[in-house]
Hints:
Order of helices and strands of chain A: HHHHHHEEHHHHHHHHH
Distance between the termini of chain A: 54 Å
Low-confidence stretches of chain B: 436-442
Shape of chain A: globular
Helix content of chain A: over 70%
Structural class of chain B: mainly alpha
Strand order of the largest sheet of chain A: 1-2
Low-confidence stretches of chain A: 295-311
Strand content of chain B: under 5%
Order of helices and strands of chain B: HHHHHHHHHHHHHHHHHEEHHH
Strand content of chain A: under 5%
Largest sheet of chain A: 2 strands, antiparallel
Distance between the termini of chain B: 80 Å
Oligomer: heterodimer
Number of helices of chain A: 15
Radius of gyration of chain A: 21 Å
Shape of chain B: elongated
Mean pLDDT of chain B: 83
Structural class of chain A: mainly alpha
Number of strands of chain B: 2
Number of strands of chain A: 2
Helix content of chain B: over 70%
Mean pLDDT of chain A: 81
Largest interface: A-B, 62 and 61 residues
Largest sheet of chain B: 2 strands, antiparallel
Amino acid sequence: MTTFWIILTACLASAACALVGTWLVLRKQAMLSDAISHAVLPGIAIAFILTASRNTFPMLIGAGAFGLLTVYLTEKLQERGRLMNDASMGIVFTTLFAIGVIIITLFAGSVDLDHECILFGEIGYVPWDLWMFAGMNMGPRPVWILGMVLILNLVFIASCYKELKVYAFDRQLAVSMGIPVAFIHYGLMGTVSFSTIASFESVGAILVVALIIVPPATAYLLTRRLSVMLVLAVGFGVLSSLSGYYLAYITNTSIAGAIAVMTGVFFALALLFSPQEGVFTKRNRKPGTEAFEAGKGNVAGTITADDIPQN
Amino acid sequence: MSELWADFFLLQDPNLRWVLAGTILLGLSAGALGCFAVLRERALVGDAVAHAVLPGVCLAFIVTGDKDPLALLIGSVIFGWISLLVMDFVIRNSKISADTSIGMVLSVFFGLGVVLLTWIQNSGNPNQSGLDAFLFGNAASMLPEDVMLFGFVCVMVIVAIILLYKELKLVSFDPDYAKVIGYPVRRMEMVMATLLVVTITAGLQAVGVVLMASMLIIPAAAARYWTDSLVVMLFIAAGVGAVAAISGTFVSYTAPAMPTGPWMVVSAAVLFGLSFFFAPARGEFQKWRRSGRQQQKVTGENILKTLYKLEERDGLSARSRTRREILKKRQMEPGSLKQGLKRLEKQGMVQHLAGKPAGYLLTAAGREEAERIVRIHRLWELYLTEKLQLPGDHVHDPAESMEHVITPELEQQLMLILNNPVEDPHKKQIPKPVSRSGRRTP
């Protein structure tokens, strides 16, 4: 039963992360997941100190606020300060993380919280983190929280799918079409924050980054349809969770680390052997053949005239 | 407290001497090297490399079975290198973008490192305790041999920057041009990457994985606000790094529970904040003051123009106007009108009459200035209708903004092009300019 709960938690986390990660990868904002997962530390610490408990909901709120603050500050710095996006992001999240570590150290005596467990997560302890409701054992709490976040992500993507699609590929076009870009943008950033926070309580900050970026990137190499990419990304996330768990079980090592390694293994396979984009597939194509010509357009991911639907 | 200060700055504690030397060297070299990373838009590559060296550290430990600083350094340099090559390979060979590639390498390599770390922990080697200092940094526990090692590394980095300054500069600003004129760009990039990897590895023990990136980014970003010259930027960034190192070490010396690394980062962030707000020319505060001054100039000019137009409407009779009359003619914030009039009075452009009828009157200087603005406005309107064939009802708004920016030289050119015109497209008089001798040209 404990194995079941651990695997279920990992699968829920990977599905929730892959769903939001797809948009970040397409928007070329993948590093935002890294920034958010570190920058929420002060939010968690403050919520923890104020409520004096490990209650998840205040932590979610505190972390969510700091997640959005990171996005906001990064954008402001970039806009006002003539800094590149990556530099402003680096300034914001490392500073917030440092502040978080300092807060935790200040209250070290009264706080049973360390940044180590936030970085690595404690997915192995999930089955014992039970949610008691009205005296009944409802099962592990992370499963409930991750399930809720997953549903939230699904609802957001399903209800704004068309808008998100335009926004992800061409922000200017989205603005000119009258799509509420600010709402979509902060909605997406909000779901990224929630997914990050809900996941890293159980799986750790670094694994969250792996789950958000790597499976969508793997899917990106295998398809050129957005809907297929979403499904594949979730698929690779779940597959990595399952195989990662068994890798950790066999070698008796960290589950979160092993899952991150497995996402990397699947990406490497896709990078080398993807039917359209793979490094080896491209190399083995003979010049002049149909396959070679078909592959040419795909090399740079450019859209050729054939790709544009004729009305 | 003062005793602590004296202890700190007189370097009584031999242990402190080592720690301080180590962190300052780190601040100097990371700050200087970070300039190149930030300018090349590769700020977060440092973050990824810092995470990616973890498997190298673990493997070096597994192979040697000991925490020999040199072995750990070599292991992590090798993995830092591999991580850079993988990042580069993915970007070159697929449609994956740079940020995704960086994030993937960061998380997957770190995941591998965590797997190896737990494997070491479960293997029961008694030497393994303290390996995680690499993750979170523990400057206070630095031993003299650690400091010597990374002091050596930092000196090497600084010497390399000095020797290769010209090449590094060219490659950071314009790699394509460098390639065209025959520079070994690829080799320079490898040198820069090696310097980056070595600095990061050396710094990990002081500030840890997550905060290493900030020691590269923040000083360089702060320095950017003070200068446009790369040499100056390098010195300022190194200085910011060193000051952050001193203050971080000071805090953890006076409050031993406090970690050095996070305080270094927060100090650097404070210095960045000061630069962001108060740097001359580029700081927010200066920008705000400049736009405020521009705003004041525009308001003043609009008031003068309105007073002039009121006179013109009443047949150029010099009569004082109340604020209400001005507001009736031209809509503006009553508050800014009041302040604007006060400023104009101080400049001698208007005269405030207290008696009855109370109000404001243009002085001779004020009238001259008002005429100049109205002249530019009408010249521009005429230019737009005559030379650009714009319809007469489309020219007022552009002229409203141009009247505040056209220089005397441009004004003369306009007069020439339009043959010293008398009337604007709306049949209004264009005020004649006052000649140097103070007499109106006929």
